[in-house]
Amino acid sequence: MATQVAICLLGVISLLIACAGAHRFVKFGYSGTICPEKWGELSPDYSLCSNGTRQSPINIVRAATVVDLSLKPLERDYNPANATLVDNGFNIMLSYGEDVGAMVIDGKNYTLKQMHWHSPSEHTLEGIRYPMEMHLVHASDDGNISVVSILYQYGHADPFLYQLKEKVDELSKEVCAGDEEAHVAAGLVDTKALRRHTNKYYRYVGSLTTPPCTENVIWNVLGKVRDISPEQASTLSSLLGEEYRNNSRPTQPLNGRRVLLYHEAV
């Protein structure tokens, strides 16, 4: 059902996984006077969007990455769990209200909290921007954030998203405009497609890609580009208002950061 601005704020806080701190929500966008280049001027809480030195997304140049033999396989132990599909105005999000499982990084558990989609992709590989990108946002008990990024090219239907087809159609009928957001109970969501083995990924330290652009986020960009059907991508984008259908932040300078590569074959 559609709710008022207080619930919208809860959606934003959910997006930031609470560990980013409580911030006063100020509307941001992707064009005009509230475009990404202006985010840092919209609120003092958003200053890192302009002044931060470890911002995301980035362009990944394979030849410039550093193979790190100390990196471990990306262990993800997710369980089927109840979730809520949310249109918060600036992206479509699947939020989990119970423990869906975790990812292990350097021996620390990062619990999956939510996932959302950007169109087109925010990260680029060799300067190539893909039609869509999904972010799986995790948080540790001590307040750190880690995100798994999956890039999508046009091809076969994405099996994970396919199971949500009826709920996405239901969400499209909900009212979501201005200071409102829409929620649809998605029921038990199968996570099998998200647990697929990954033999290559890129890791770097960056930020959230939406205000307040909180830094020290551990990014894990999967090396294999997955398929999504044009219809699936179009349906997700069309749920948003026209000004948010392109909800991709431009790539940010590396500023000397290293992009590490885990490759199972090395």
UniProtKB/TrEMBL annotation:
Domain Alpha-carbonic anhydrase: residue ranges: 26-263
Reaction(s) the record says it catalyses: hydrogencarbonate + H(+) = CO2 + H2O
Stored CDD domains: alpha_CA_prokaryotic_like (cd03124)
One Pfam family from the record: Carb_anhydrase
Keywords for the protein's UniProt record, in alphabetical order: Lyase, Metal-binding, Signal, Zinc
Top-tier EC class: lyase
Keyword flag Metal-binding: yes
Signal peptide: 1-22
InterPro entries to which the protein is assigned, alphabetical: Alpha_CA_prokaryot-like, CA_dom, CA_dom_sf, Carbonic_anhydrase_a-class, Carbonic_anhydrase_a-class_CS
Cofactor(s) of this protein: Zn(2+)
Recorded GO MF terms: carbonate dehydratase activity; zinc ion binding
Top-level taxon in the UniProt lineage: Eukaryota
GO terms (BP aspect): one-carbon metabolic process
Function: Reversible hydration of carbon dioxide.
Family named by the database record: Belongs to the alpha-carbonic anhydrase family.
This protein's name: Carbonic anhydrase
Organism the protein comes from: Spirodela intermedia (Intermediate duckweed)
